[in-house]
Design goal:
3 helices; about 30% helix; alpha/beta; 9 strands
């Protein structure tokens, strides 16, 4: 009887080991998810009026919830979906914040973005609200989509919180093809275009130019 029990145990262990080995052999064959990024295209802001440098404190960006994660949002005739097997390398909201910081840092204009906790004079407070951030299939699901980036910007004076400017910026860039590798560059261009307009707007709104 003991031999029969031992044989049964060995059989069960062998079966479990075979099951685990089968699972392990299958896992590496899973289709990998493609990782992409945006916000690295060169941002070109029109040259603003001359004047002294001034500090701009940027509040955390409000991002549309559907597009804030690392998934790439699409829209087609009122229906929304995410692109399968494709992700942003970080959450879209994080990549956008990084792109904003680079846009101001690389621009030679008067506005200087000041980080939270940094000891510096703050003249303006900038708030950004990303309202639309998606690939819109305006000509049907098989045609190349149009990337839409729509951002509302609000500027207030830091001293008295008076409103300096409230404006919506929008860029529409059609992808070269209905492939992720062509859609991502369209995101890059749309973000660069919007940020270029925002930086130029902030440069022109500084002390001594608008108030």
């Amino acid at each position: 009887m003991s031999r029969i029990r031992n044989f049964a145990r060995l059989t069960a262990v062998a079966a479990l080991a075979m099951g685990l080995s089968a699972c392990i052999s299958v896992f590496p064959k899973t289709k990998p998810v493609g990782l992409y990024r945006f916000g690295e295209a060169e941002v070109s802001a029109p040259k603003g009026p001359p004047g002294a440098m001034f500090g701009v404190l940027k509040a955390p960006t409000v991002f549309t919830r559907a597009a804030a994660s690392d998934r790439i949002l699409t829209s087609s005739q009122g229906q929304v979906a995410y692109i399968a097997d494709a992700r942003w390398v970080s959450a879209a909201s994080v990549l956008f914040e990084e792109a904003v910081a680079r846009a101001f840092e690389n621009d030679p204009g008067r506005a200087r973005l000041i980080g939270r906790g940094e000891v510096a004079k703050v003249d303006l407070v900038l708030r950004l609200e990303v309202r639309t951030f998606e690939a819109d299939y305006v000509n049907g699901p098989k045609a190349a989509p149009e990337v839409v980036v729509r951002v509302r910007g609000v500027l207030n004076r830091n001293t008295d919180r008076a409103l300096v400017g409230d404006q919506v910026f929008e860029a529409r860039v059609k992808a070269a093809d209905n492939r992720v590798s062509a859609i991502v560059p369209a995101y890059d261009k749309a973000v660069a275009q919007v940020l270029g307009e925002i930086v130029a707007w902030a440069n022109a709104a500084g002390p001594g130019i608008a108030g």
